[in-house]
Amino acid sequence: MPFEVLLPGILVLVLAAGYVLLVTRARRRNAQAGWSRWRTAWFLVGCGLLAAGVLPPLAPWAHSDFRGHMLQHLLIGMYAPLGLVLGAPGTLLLRNLPAQRGRRLIGLLQSRPLHLLANPVTALALSVGPLLLLYSTPLYNAVTANPVLHWLMHAHFLLAGCLFAYVIAGPDPAPARPGVPVRLVVLGVAIAMHAVISQLMYGGFGINIHAPIDQVQRGAEIMYYGGDIAELLLAGALVATWRPNRRVRAAGAPRFPQTRPGPPTCSAARSPAAPPPRTSSWISARLPARGGPRHR
């Protein structure tokens, strides 16, 4: 079996097996909490879509036909990342880490570089921006002629797609994630940008792709319709996780909480404590309690 087929197949298999192993360990550590079967199914579907994109018969076809390349791009850069992200691998990892290491990982999420990287605008620029550079310059022709650059392109599509899906609708904790309306606006911009690039490609305006015209046009159609479906699925995942905060107050209930009469105690005399950091909810929900089982 050629090395270019064996290596990606092994990597996808290791990714899926590692996730299943973490699921098994998480269920053993906390049988009551368990782990969602839907999360597991989503992640394994993502692994299957990734395998379909990097293995035969699609991979050899993508090397010689632009239509195959575009279908491969959709699988690796949009569909597979959606499944992988909905599997919540970060939360699963936190379930398996000791509490101290988990807090360190969450502290890393609060760092400034990750704040910038997890910004929806940054994720949009990294996922959609390089497409215009790839297809409007000689870069695509150079990448397809060099196997190393070709695999680097696949890696960028996968990582950028995972980042964008994570920022928009990922169930894992994210630093300073904006509200759902803002993320929907960013997703709408992504849909519009994909549509513009595919239309430019179909019309041959500013495109530098060494391929037959009919292949380029069919590839543009695959990008247009396939990209819309993937982004609508991402929008559905975002809306499905939207839980708007509604303040409901019973009729006749006092606006402010009542206090018991009597002299204030030491705890009541203190100034109100600052609200806990946002990471506390992540830790309490995803890390084992102090009295819980420990690693041997």
Describe the structure.
- The protein is built from 14 helices and no strands.
- With 296 residues, the protein is mostly helical.
- It starts with a helix and ends in a 10-residue tail after the last helix.
- Mean pLDDT is 84; it is low at 246-285 and 288-296.
Quick recap of the structure?
This protein is about 70% helix and about 0% strand. The chain is mostly helical.
- Report the major sheet: none
Low-confidence stretches: 246-285, 288-296
Helix content: over 70%
Count of individual helical segments: 14
Rounded to an integer, what's the Rg over CA atoms? 24 Å
Proportion of residues in β-strands: under 5%
Number of strands: 0
- Average predicted confidence as pLDDT: 84
Global shape:
globular
What is the first-to-last residue Cα distance? 40 Å
Structural class: mainly alpha
Sequence of secondary-structure elements: HHHHHHHHHHHHHH
Helices and strands in order, then pairings?
Layout: H1 3-29, H2 37-54, H3 58-64, H4 66-86, H5 89-96, H6 99-109, H7 112-117, H8 120-136, H9 139-145, H10 147-169, H11 180-203, H12 213-240, H13 266-269, H14 279-286
Helix pairs in contact: 1-2, 1-5, 2-4, 3-4, 4-10, 4-12, 8-10, 8-11, 9-10, 11-12
Distinctive features:
14 helices, disordered C terminus, 296 residues, 0% strand, mainly alpha
